[in-house]
């Protein structure tokens, strides 16, 4: 028998689908820029601005885990590129980021998420471990979670052990007492296993679990409770 004390969740594509939200957030941010810094349209359409932002991020190793700051810097530098003074560009970039992050939290949380969290909360500490910049405390389900750690906060991204170690320290439990749930085989599953924790892989049907992998596979949040029970019973 295995005693589980803490369960952590990834966020994007685990508790909600991230792509539709990001598309809307990017559209709203670009529309705001066109209205408030119209010169941007002379040099960048939305796709070109995205490519610029990715190039800035990829060319600066110090921003590897700082996706919010990377976005701010890239927008500010794009605005300088089209003729705005540096100080004004920085201020406009901050405002544009505020538009983005507000839209970033306009999410359609999976219907199964809250019933699952309600049940888990009665028995376990719950936490968030995310490489993204969603803040669970800004969402209706935030009150179910005891803690949250992000790549930005620790300047390290899953599958690096930093987020898992932070969760273990916060919850005062041993690795074998923690289960992490996520959709990404490398970041979530392998990261958790490498840290000595249990892993539940939320498989939306895009990949196959490698043969011999020690993760517990589920095809939806409704299957998570049964997977946790299997872990606690020692099943593989």
Q: Let me know the CATH homologous superfamily of the largest domain.
A: HAD superfamily/HAD-like
Q: Please, how many helices?
A: 10
The total domain count is 2
Distance between the termini: 12 Å
CATH topology of the largest domain: Rossmann fold
Mind summarizing the main beta sheet?
6 strands, parallel
**Low-pLDDT sequence parts:** none
Strand content: 5-15%
Neighbour order of strands in the largest sheet:
3-2-1-4-5-6
Helix content: 40-55%
Gyration radius (Cα, Å) is 20 Å
Which geometry do the CA atoms define? elongated
| CATH uppermost class of the largest domain | Alpha Beta
Number of strands: 6
Alpha-beta classification: alpha/beta
CATH architecture of the largest domain: 3-Layer(aba) Sandwich
Order of helices and strands: EHHHHHHEEHHEHEEH
Average pLDDT figure = 96
List the helices and strands and how they pair.
Elements: E1 6-9, H1 19-36, H2 40-43, H3 46-58, H4 67-81, H5 86-104, H6 113-121, E2 125-130, E3 147-150, H7 151-154, H8 162-171, E4 178-182, H9 185-194, E5 198-202, E6 216-218, H10 224-233
Parallel strand pairs: 1-2, 1-4, 2-3, 4-5, 5-6
Helix pairs in contact: 1-5, 3-4, 4-5
Quickly list its features.
single chain; 236 residues; alpha/beta; Rossmann fold; Four Helix Bundle (Hemerythrin (Met), subunit A); 10 helices; elongated
Please give a structural write-up.
This protein is elongated. It has two domains: 6-16 and 108-233, HAD superfamily/HAD-like (Rossmann fold); 19-104, Four Helix Bundle (Hemerythrin (Met), subunit A) (Up-down Bundle), CATH 1.20.120. β4, α9 and β5 form a beta-alpha-beta unit. It contains ten helices and six strands; from the N terminus they run βααααααββααβαββα. It is 47% helix and 11% strand. It has a six-stranded parallel beta sheet, sandwiched between helices. α3 crosses α4. With 236 residues, it is of the alpha/beta class.
């Amino acid at each position: 028998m295995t005693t589980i004390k803490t369960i952590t969740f990834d966020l994007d594509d685990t508790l909600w689908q991230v792509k539709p939200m990001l598309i809307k957030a990017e559209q709203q941010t670009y529309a705001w820029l066109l209205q408030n810094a119209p010169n941007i349209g002379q040099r960048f359409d939305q796709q070109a601005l995205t490519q610029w932002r990715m190039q800035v991020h990829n060319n600066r190793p110090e921003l590897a885990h700082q996706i919010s700051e990377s976005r701010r810097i890239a927008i500010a530098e794009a605005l300088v590129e089209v003729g705005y003074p540096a100080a004004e560009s920085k201020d406009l970039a901050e405002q544009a980021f505020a538009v983005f992050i507000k839209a970033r939290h306009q999410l359609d949380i999976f219907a199964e998420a809250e019933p699952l969290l309600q049940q888990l909360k009665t028995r376990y500490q719950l936490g968030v471990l995310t490489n993204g910049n969603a803040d669970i405390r800004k969402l209706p389900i935030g009150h179910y979670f005891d803690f949250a750690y992000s790549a930005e906060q620790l300047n390290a991204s899953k599958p690096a052990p930093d987020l898992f170690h932070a969760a273990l320290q916060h919850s005062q439990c041993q690795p074998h007492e923690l289960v992490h749930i996520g959709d990404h085989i490398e970041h979530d599953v392998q990261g958790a296993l490498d840290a000595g924790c249990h892993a539940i892989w939320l498989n939306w049907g895009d990949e196959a679990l490698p043969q011999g992998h020690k993760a517990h596979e589920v095809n939806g949040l409704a299957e998570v409770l049964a997977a946790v029970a299997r872990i606690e019973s020692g099943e593989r």
